[in-house]
Amino acid sequence: MAESDRAIVIGGGIGGLAAAAALHRRGWGVTVLERARSLEPVGAAISLAPNALRALDVLGIGEEIRDLAAWQGDGGLRTARGRWLSRSSAEAAAARFGGPLVLLPRATLVDRLAALLPAGAVRTAAAATLADPGDGRRPARVGTGDEELEAELVVGADGINSRVRTALFPDHPGPEYAGFTTWRMLIPVPGVDFAPHETWGRGRIWGTHPLKDGRVYAYAAAMTPAGGRAPDDEKAELLRLFGDWHDPIPAVLAAARPEDVLRHDVHHIVTPLPAYHAGRVALLGDAAHAMPPTLGQGGNQAIEDAVVLAHHSRDLGAYTAARLPRTTAITRQAVRAARLNMAASPAVVAVRDTVIAALSKAAPALLLRGFDGIADWRPPYAAGETIER
Fold first, then answer.
1. Among 87, 99, 118, 214, which residue's CB has the most CB atoms within a 10 Å radius?
2. Is there a contact between 154 and 280 (Cβ–Cβ < 8 Å)?
3. Whole-prediction pTM
4. pLDDT band at 387 (very low <50, low <70, confident <90, very high)
């Protein structure tokens, strides 16, 4: 690879930073253009399954991220009144998939990924526009308003409303509303002890998980028209929707301040893109395959994308071939999961809960089976592989 080969990553989120770090390890000169004034991530926490942790092994930070694992003992799925429908454990998950599930603040992961890049590689307050995707004979061009940059590779990691995706595939319908909105918070909740759980109600879900730093990550979702907002504040809305659910949900809500609560409508890409590349430009993460959060795989798949893209950085057709079928299948599985856990019909919910409880008694690892073929993924090259530059 020539020393002059440059890669421009548009978007400084988790997927963009992971791609920049992976490309840097393979000898590319990397520039990350982030339109926000800082790398402070949107969102509270992220769950990393063993598949993403193996990808982070390629970047050299897998083990230190695994050290942040907090889930110990039992956890599982509950009803709004607190009855356990299914239970599992950290040990069972690690045994099945060859590693732990790690929950950590998004800011922690962003900081660790950014630290893998050389000084000056990340430019904030730098809105970027794809001017020319390039081809086999000419480089791609990216405009920043003040200047135009050329690169042998451009990575569109600019999120669900990706302008890079629109430039490459202007006829694609783009993301659609998934039918529900989410709330998230990351707060201290002193004196509250609980097993990690997700709780399914009628058209509503709640999750409560402890982090290793002592804080609690809580999230919620509810079926609602797009664009809605609480008439007062989002904490009050959560109290109306979940305030009478089982412990420790009331205690978590009591500890939260209105400003702690983030709310975002969920959109996803229903119609798969025809490819994840065009010319010298590749898409990854939500820009390529935004999915509902029901499997917790959005960020995980972006990290997978990053290391696979670096591996196939000289053959973007191979990148599409490796990633499009897998991420399309996982997106569809996440949509099916959303239909199940966001079901609102009382009759459907009653049948759902009865079937899950019965199957869980017969097969305790029921919930884990849903991640077969996902969490056991391994990257296309091993950590520490010698890379020719």
1. 99
2. yes
3. 0.94
4. very low
Asked whether the CA dihedral 342, 226, 181, 177 is positive or negative, the reply is positive
CA distance 301 to 290: 10
Reported as a pLDDT band with limits 50, 70 and 90, residue 82 is very high
- Cα–Cα distance, 316 to 280 (Å, whole number): 8
Q: Alpha carbon 152 to chain centroid distance?
A: 27
φ and ψ of 49, to 5 deg: -85, 170
Tell me if 305 sits within 8 A of 330, measured CB to CB.
no
Contacts of 77 (CB under 8 A, 6+ apart): 84, 85, 86, 87, 197, 198, 199, 200, 356, 367
Three-state SS letters, the chain: CCCCCEEEEECCCHHHHHHHHHHHHCCCEEEEECCCCCCCCCCCEEEECHHHHHHHHHHCCHHHHHCCCCCCCEEEEEECCCCEEEEEEHHHHHHHHCCCCEEEEHHHHHHHHHCCCCCCCEECCCCCEEEECCCCCCCEEEECCCCEEEECEEEECCCCCCHHHHHHCCCCCCCEEEEEEEEEEEEECCCCCCCCEEEECCCEEEEEEECCCCEEEEEEEEECCCCCCCCCCHHHHHHHHHCCCCCCHHHHHHHCCHHHCEEEEEEECCCCCCCCEECCEEECCHHHHCCCHHHCCHHHHHHHHHHHHHHCCCCHHHHHHHHHHHHHHHHHHHHHHHHHHCCCCHHHHHHHHHHHHHHHHHCCCHHHHCCCCCCCCCCCCCCCCCCCC
Token pair of 112 as six digits: 């660790």
For 30, list phi and psi in degrees, rounded to 5.
Answer: -115, 135
Question: Which pLDDT does position 162 carry in this prediction?
Answer: 98
What's phi and psi for 50, nearest 5 deg? -55, -30
Q: Rounded CA gap, 358 and 364, in Å?
A: 10
- Please tell me the number of Cα atoms within 13 Å of 350 on its side-chain side: 3
CA-to-CA distance for 209 and 186, rounded, in angstroms?
Answer: 10
**Is the preceding omega at residue 248 within 30 degrees of 0, hence cis?**
yes
Q: For residue 85, is it left (φ>0), alpha (ψ between -120 and 50) or beta?
A: alpha
pLDDT tens digits, 136-175: 999 999 999 889 999 999 999 999 999 999 999 999 999 9
The torsion angles phi and psi of 15, rounded to 5 degrees, stand at -65, -45
